């Protein structure tokens, strides 16, 4: 299997898991505090990291990049607090729209930290994807204040953590990165959770889902960036919105409005542009040189309705920056 295609499939699976986690959190409501949710998620992440690293045992904690691993964990913790602040201080639609600007930060940090060649096509893909997210979220951005600026700048932490995942894997394993990310998350939330009100008993029935969906989704994202450039996968972080719409159709029979439909098309288009952006060396850009992509990328989204509503999303990427043929017409 093509490495980039595997990474895309992992990102799609992550989006499904995160959407399921969001639905569970919505169902719980105020039954469990955000700090308790973060603490539970962190503990489950630690267990999952140890489980995936069972062959090496305590070797999962060995790292040649301890300061950077701890920084990665603090970045995630910082974004968690920014997210809590933004969703509590801003209208829900506005906070949601701002949170999806992470795709732009991923592209930016991919250039600054990873020195990845982010092409014009990928910048375009990022812009198209964010435009799609705005159409779906429908923010108003009324009464602009400092909270918007904090949310916008704070979202950069989410993009930074995504890029750091790939940087750390140059010398550490996926499980090691997963371990330290959740280790810092637990340490950061434990003091606050200790002072918070204990969760309601009836909410604990959802704990198994919380222990599974979020941590596994995080791990899949860490593995994904090992197999593809972070800038390629940036637009795929927006698929959560599309999957939420599909889930709404299948489960609740709620049809999206025109703006949401167009926004969904934009997000799919952004994924196509990102995957098919050719990385062309400078010597191929001379006059008379033509670069051909041997196969095209096909993205299909099929949503059908019958006696039972069904929806499917098929994504096949065959055109990558590594699969190209150059021909000099000169």
Outline the secondary-structure elements.
Blueprint: H1 3-28, H2 34-52, H3 66-89, H4 92-99, H5 102-112, H6 120-137, H7 146-168, H8 174-195, H9 207-227, H10 230-233, H11 239-252, H12 258-276, E1 289-292, E2 298-304, E3 310-316, E4 325-328
Antiparallel strand pairs: 1-4, 2-3
User: Can you count the beta strands?
Assistant: 4
- Helix/strand/pairing category: mainly alpha
Largest sheet, spatial ordering of strands: 1-4
Average residue pLDDT: 82
Rg value: 21 Å
- The helix tally amounts to 12
Distance between the termini: 35 Å
Low-confidence stretches: 278-330
Number of domains: 1
Q: Approximately how much beta-strand content do the residues carry?
A: 5-15%
> Helical content, roughly?
55-70%
Order of helices and strands: HHHHHHHHHHHHEEEE
**Shape, principal axes of CA atoms:** globular
Largest sheet at a glance?
A: 2 strands, antiparallel
List keywords for this structure.
63% helix; globular; two-stranded antiparallel sheet; 4 strands; single chain; 7% strand; disordered C terminus; 330 residues; mainly alpha; 12 helices
Summary?
The protein has one domain.
Describe this entry's structure for a reader.
The chain has 330 residues and is mainly α. The protein has one domain. It is built from twelve helices and four strands, in the order ααααααααααααββββ. The strands form two sheets. A two-stranded antiparallel sheet has the order 1-4. A two-stranded antiparallel sheet has the order 2-3. A hairpin with a 5-residue loop joins strand 2 and strand 3. Helix 3 crosses helix 8. The longest helix has 26 residues. The protein is globular and about 50 Å long. The two termini are 35 Å apart. The C terminus is likely disordered.
